[in-house]
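2024-03-11 09:14:02 DEBUG pipeline.ingest accepted 1 chain
2024-03-11 09:14:02 DEBUG pipeline.ingest length=303
2024-03-11 09:14:03 DEBUG pipeline.predict start
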Amino acid sequence: MQKRKIILSGVAAFCASFGSIVAPSVAQSLSTQAGMHSRVVALYSFSPSKVTNEVRESKSKEMDAFWDEVKAHKDEDLPLLRRELENPENPKFFFADGSGLLLSLSQAQDDQKIAVHCLAKVDLSDFQSRQFLFEVHGLAVKGIDVTPAALHLLDDPKFVVYLPEHGAYKLDQSACLYYSLLPLPNDVWLQSVIERLKTEHDETATKSMLLLLFYAQSDDADRVIRSVAKDPGIGKTMRDFADMILKHERDLGVGSHPSRALEEKFREERRLRMAAVSDEAVDDMEDLTGKIAQTRTETSSAH
């Protein structure tokens, strides 16, 4: 059986390879909530990026045993696991590893929603950015509102994902954000992004959200972009970036061929195309966004 490895980001992602794992001869149910909580605290009260490879290897073996125990007594232990994942006082690394355990046991929508809120609380320095993106994106493709987790990646200005299977193609923070949210309809995430933008001070995160608002191709999104472009209280770099987006929209010919039926068709095609994570999918997404722009039927704030 293939064993898991502790998930780390950046240069800290190195983990020792595992041999055979010494597991209890008989997996024991954790039985009570108190027992589960004590096990969680004892097992996960550490930061993988701040310990030695030897400690990570030892902890990984313990976590494999924990997963085996819960899986062997799913009916008894799954409800206990859910309760622990909903407890905000638990160690941060538990939310990263425990949410993966939950999703390995259940694909119920309520459990997927629990996983989203766990991912929104993880320490990104202890989680491979690729793993984080693929988990969030996978849930979005299934129609789960991943907005809290998607916005969490904005907390790391250096968030980046490499796709070696696509010629080392790189997804920067902005690309990871739109990959997380564009599989969902605008009305699921748009207002949350607008609210976050109002209080955001990081330049990288602000640019990522402005670009996402461009891809939204809606009047509400355009109004926000225009307000940034005109706000004297915002730095020139951000005003210029917003102006660049608005010019790009004009160049695309926003509303030049209005058709609600075609607009909805292209939006659905883009949503489905975003199920794939690749450079080819990004190219198609850009092309479909242009078609959405041209066929938009509500463009009062786009000019």
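2024-03-11 09:14:41 DEBUG pipeline.report Strands lie at 161-163, 169-171.
2024-03-11 09:14:41 DEBUG pipeline.predict end
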